[in-house]
Amino acid sequence: MRPRCRWSGGECIDLYLLHWRGAHPLRETVLGMLALVAAGSIRHWGVSNLDVDALAELAAVTPAGAAACATNQVYYSLSERGPEFSLLPWMCERRMPLMAYSPVDQGRLAGNAALARIGEPRGLTAAQVALAWVLSQPGIVAIPKAAAPEHLRQNFAAAEVSLSAAERARIEARFAAPKGKTPLAML
Ligand SMILES: NC(=O)c1ccc[n+]([C@@H]2O[C@H](COP(=O)([O-])OP(=O)(O)OC[C@H]3O[C@@H](n4cnc5c(N)ncnc54)[C@H](OP(=O)(O)O)[C@@H]3O)[C@@H](O)[C@H]2O)c1
Fold this sequence. Notes:
The protein contains seven helices and five strands. It is α/β, with parallel strands linked by helices. A five-stranded parallel sheet has the order 1-2-3-4-5.
């Protein structure tokens, strides 16, 4: 049975994220998160919008194992591949999943004609191709937002799509990998 929150009587929060770095020392935030885990208010904790330098600082004060930071949620999509240069490798090395927000670029990739052409022979929409590509990257989970039931169904189906090497090459020819370090993009 799940632990119940002491403060609300409701169920425990599965994953609680620090939205961005903010003004408070990371060490204090980590201690606060660990106190919430110990109190049974949250099961796991993580961060968002942190680049390698801040994650390295966080790692110095974060315990290992089950109490460690569960994820870093950042803007990552075909149109925003910056995290691949150093952030994603850093996180993969430490087996910390990167949670991709806005993975269909807030709906913009759904209207991309090149992605629609790549998906058409398999009956996939442009948004599904974009999402399948994000999910095919190592160490990635994605959180597309969809209010339309049809979009929700398509996004679940995209999670089952395995792109061929030829499809990946066509996609990546249109959306190039980063050639250098860029500041972490945020929405
Ligand atoms: N941590 C942060 O700082 C941060 C920043 C931004 C966003 N986020 C989070 O990331 C999540 C998603 O991000 P987002 O909403 O910005 O962008 P997104 O998921 O890339 O795009 C959402 C838009 O795409 C449309 N869409 C979704 N699936 C589609 C499909 N299969 N076909 C066509 N259109 C589709 C949605 O339409 P409908 O809704 O009409 O279905 C909606 O307009 C949200 O939970 C958000 O809170 C976090």
